[in-house]
Amino acid sequence: MGEFERKQQLIQEMLAAAGLDALVLRRVSSFAWATCGAASYVNTAASEGEATLVITPKGRYLVTNNIEAPRLEQEEHLADQGWEFRVTPWHEAHDEIAELTRGFKVGADVPLPGATNLAAQIARLRTNLLPEEQERFRALARLQAEAMDQAIRAVRPGQSEYEIAALLAHEMERRGVQCIVNLIATDERIFNFRHPLPTARRLERYAMLVACGRRHGLVCSCTRLVHFGRLPDELRRKMEAVAYVDAAFIAATRPGRTLGEVFERGRAAYAEVGFPNEWRLHHQGGPAGYEAREAIGLPGRSDTVAIGQVYAWNPSITGTKSEDTILVGPDGNEVLTEIPGWPVIPVTLPGDKAPIPRPAILEIT
Q1: pLDDT, tens digit, for every residue of 199-248?
Q2: Residue-range domains of the chain with CATH
């Protein structure tokens, strides 16, 4: 059974479990998942696209306007995939979705009048990547790692954060990876803000680059830091500490564990390295897929880690951060965004023999 057919089967199983007949998928992420990578957005910041998928006992439909239909048919090849196009003029209001679902018990991935909200269930489907999706994710991660490496090695003192953001976006976009999150901080802004939107501030010594990249609907995350001149001892100590926490998260992310259990291991690791309250200042990440995070690790969260899922943990200790995207495999976790030749901190956790390498701060002296 191919990827598309398997996903249609998963949809029918989900509907049956919920006692529903039909499904409406409007989110950009859900559309990409169900179509094996097609893009329904025009505004890259939009959560809901310009096309909607409707699955009923009578058929599979793609509802859109006459602006989007040609591209979805000719370039995304969605008619060939078996979707029946229902096209309305862009200037007319016509509720095609209501007509297609009339008389059915409906679920949706967004709040929709009269429909059961299945957003959480669909997010779990998006999180469990099939083999074809895992290969696409590996390709995405390799491209993003290359882009991050090229961009950060081109960073120089005197550049503005806007210019650094442009370097990162250029290296990603020219590789076909859409830079949907581009966070840049320099010097004291790294210590002041966990989500630093780029500004006109110019780099003196220290820069952090954070990227989420999208390709074929999948979203990958990574962070790297660069320091010009000798790294201060306190900053080195913090980076080693956050690398330990990151390694603890990665090691704990194994099949059968709950997100709550993984979170508690990370929270304990913060205490072990002497920073017991830093976890309170920013979320720690969680499973990825067709969203940068399909869920967030929280105390008591019962979602279970499974083979084939990808995770992006992002622990931070004020002034430092460690983040890569990993794939959960049957025998271990694969760091997808590893950058060959990047300096690393080898972390050996209690009870482990083999160290887990985590990225260090790149020092340019």
Answers
A1: 999 999 999 999 999 999 999 999 999 999 999 999 999 999 999 999 99
A2: 3-127 (3.40.350.10), 131-364 (3.90.230.10)
* Helix, strand, coil percent values for the chain (each to nearest 5): 35, 25, 40
* Residues 253/328, Cβ–Cβ less than 8 Å: yes
Q: Which residues pair with 23 in a beta bridge?
A: 55, 107
Residue holding tokens 């398997």?
A: 6
Write down the pTM of the prediction.
0.96
Output the pLDDT for position 107. 98
Which residue shows structure tokens 């249609």?
Answer: 8
CB of 3 closer than 8 Å to CB of 11: no
In whole angstroms, how large is the CA radius of gyration of the chain? 22
Q: Would strands 316-317 and 310-313 be described as parallel, antiparallel, or unpaired?
A: unpaired
Q: Are strands 116-117 and 106-108 parallel, antiparallel or unpaired?
A: parallel
Instruction: Give me the pLDDT at residue 1, please.
Output: 80
Provide φ and ψ at 99, rounded to 5°. -70, -40
Which residue reads 């503005």 in tokens? Answer: 160
Paired residues of 220 in beta bridges: 213
| 333 pLDDT tier (thresholds 50, 70, 90) | very high
The DSSP letter of residue 361 is P
Element (H, E) at 358: strand 356-359
d(CA 297, CA 327): 16
Angle at 49 between CA 286 and CA 259, to 5 degrees: 10
Packing angle of the helix pair 161-173, 131-153 (nearest 10 deg): 140
Tokens at 169, concatenated:
């976006």
The residue written with tokens 């995770």 in the block is 311
Q: Give pLDDT, residue 201.
A: 98
Structure tokens at 149: 């490496």
Instruction: Identify the helix (H) or strand (E) that includes residue 181.
Output: strand 178-186
Q: Are 150 and 339 spatial neighbours (Cβ–Cβ below 8 Å)?
A: no
pLDDT at 93 over 80: no
Q: What is the pLDDT of residues 101-122, one digit of tens each?
A: 999 999 999 999 999 999 999 9
| Tokens standing for residue 198 | 């780029």
Do 25 and 287 touch, CB atoms closer than 8 A?
Answer: no
